[in-house]
């Protein structure tokens, strides 16, 4: 598993490095979306998670959920457009799960509209270390604690 500045980045995921979001294919044509360890480390302890409701559309590059910590409120942006088909209710009830294990605590699952095109723009886990090192350097982020 690649590790950049103490932040784990599993190889079996696809990454939107710019927005600190990971994607994984569920095997039924849908994709699950979550926040990276970098996202949760930068945000701090999460206190609220408000996903789009099942059946709602997500536009590419727009929010699929709002995430809130003690020092930050912002969108979890999906690189893929599609319809929300599932929400992780466990994270809704206990947002700090995403701090404890951001790769188990997925946020939403969507049925993507043009996954083939989007997938090609994401960074595979095996290749994510160098882009994340550059992003963390540019953002002045020292790393995960």
Structural summary, described in words:
The protein has a single domain (15-123), classed as Beta Barrel (OB fold (Dihydrolipoamide Acetyltransferase, E2P)), CATH 2.40.50.100. The protein has helices at residues 37-43, 89-93, 97-100, 115-121, 129-139; strands at 3-4, 7-8, 14-16, 21-25, 31-35, 46-51, 57-58, 62-69, 73-78, 82-87, 108-112, 123-124. With 145 residues, the protein is of the alpha+beta class.
List keywords for this structure.
145 residues; alpha+beta; OB fold (Dihydrolipoamide Acetyltransferase, E2P); 7-stranded antiparallel β-sheet; 3-stranded antiparallel β-sheet; 23% helix
Topology record:
Blueprint: E1 3-4, E2 7-8, E3 14-16, E4 21-25, E5 31-35, H1 37-43, E6 46-51, E7 57-58, E8 62-69, E9 73-78, E10 82-87, H2 89-93, H3 97-100, E11 108-112, H4 115-121, E12 123-124, H5 129-139
Antiparallel strand pairs: 1-2, 3-4, 3-12, 4-5, 5-11, 6-8, 7-10, 8-9, 10-11
